[in-house]
Amino acid sequence: MALMTFKHELIFKLVISFAIFHMVIAGDPDILSYFIVPPNVTIVDSNFFTFTGMRILLGAAPPTAFKVSKASIAEFLALNGQSVSYAILQYPAASVNPPHTHPRSAELLFLLDGSLQVGFVDTTNRLFTQTLQAGDLFVFPKGLVHYQYNSDAKNSAIAVSAFGSANAGTVSVPNTVFTTGIDDGILAKSFKTDIATIQKIKAGLAPKA
């Protein structure tokens, strides 16, 4: 009897701990209904809960540059309030997903094919890196700068990422720093370099005509 009591107490504590953990890491507010219907939607049937935007990836020619295909609240309205979203990441040979952050969610990456060098930096500037093979999963903690790099010069890679928010958000470090109009002098001082170098970096990130 005592053993059963101990087991029940342990299970209860685990359930409570999981519930607290879920509340702490949740990126979206809880909703008071099972789902949210946008004001401009008049018919709610199975089609509302179906996203077909990934069909174009099947049989399509592989991209020539890194490509991300998202199923977030912007593309899939039914995700509003569900605290979940998805992305398909395609890495041609020798391509990189540059350093970036997701301010509202952690990212759980599942490598389907190929290999990837991945990493993130914590708030003490400690770098965590790993080389992933097909079948591996890697978690990037919420809000931390991270990247993925396909170092294979001949073969592509593809991964699926899941997020604990319908709108995880993406903040690209290179674009945020160098393409948003921050003064060249401020950037030169911040990176301990000269203005000419900053201008070269900005030119490299400028949209191609």
UniProtKB/TrEMBL annotation:
Signal peptide: 1-26
Annotated keywords: Apoplast, Glycoprotein, Manganese, Metal-binding, Secreted, Signal
Keyword set includes Metal-binding: yes
SUPFAM superfamilies with a match to the protein in the record: RmlC-like cupins
Primary residence: secreted
CDD domains (UniProt xref): cupin_OxOx
InterPro entries, sorted: Cupin_1 (IPR006045), Germin (IPR001929), RmlC-like_jellyroll (IPR014710), RmlC_Cupin_sf (IPR011051)
GO cellular component: apoplast
Binding-site list for oxalate: N97, H102, E107
All copies of domain Cupin type-1, residue ranges: 58-199
Subcellular localization(s) per the UniProt record: Secreted, Extracellular space, Apoplast
Binding-site residues for Mn(2+), renumbered to this chain: H100, H102, E107, H146
A molecular-function term among this protein's GO annotations: manganese ion binding
Pfam families to which the protein is assigned, alphabetical: Cupin_1
Function summary: May play a role in plant defense. Probably has no oxalate oxidase activity even if the active site is conserved.
Homology family: Belongs to the germin family.
Subunit structure: Oligomer (believed to be a pentamer but probably hexamer).
Protein name in the entry: Germin-like protein
